[in-house]
Amino acid sequence: MTVFVIRKITFVLMNIHKVCVIGAGISGLTTAKTFIEEGYDVTVFEKQSGLGGVWEKSRTYPKLTTQNTRDTYCFSDYPMPESYSEFPTAKEMREYLESYASYFGVINQIHLKTEVTQVYKEVREEGKWIVRIKFEDNQASLKEEEHIFDFVIICNGTFNVPRVPSITGKEEFIASGGTILHSSQFTNTSLIQGKRVVVVGFGKSAADIANLAAETAKECSLVFRRVMWKIPKRFFNKIIYKDLLMTRFSEIWIPYRKRRGVEKLLHKFAKPLVWAFWRTNETIVRSQFKLDRVGMVPEVKMDKALTCNGNLAPDGFYEYINSGKIQAIKSSITRFLPNGVELANGKKINTDVVIFGTGFTQNISFLQEKYRDLLMNENGDFRLYRTILNPDVPNLAFIGYNSSFFCPLTSEVAAWWLLEYIKGNLLLPSPSQIHQEIDTEFTWIKRNLPKDLPIGTCVLSFSYHHLEDLIEDMGLDLHRKGTKQIQGIMESINPLAYQKIRQKLKNRNPQQTNYVGIPKR
Question: In this predicted model, what pLDDT tens digit does every residue of 74-97 receive, in sequence order?
Answer without folding.
Answer: 999 999 999 999 999 999 999 999
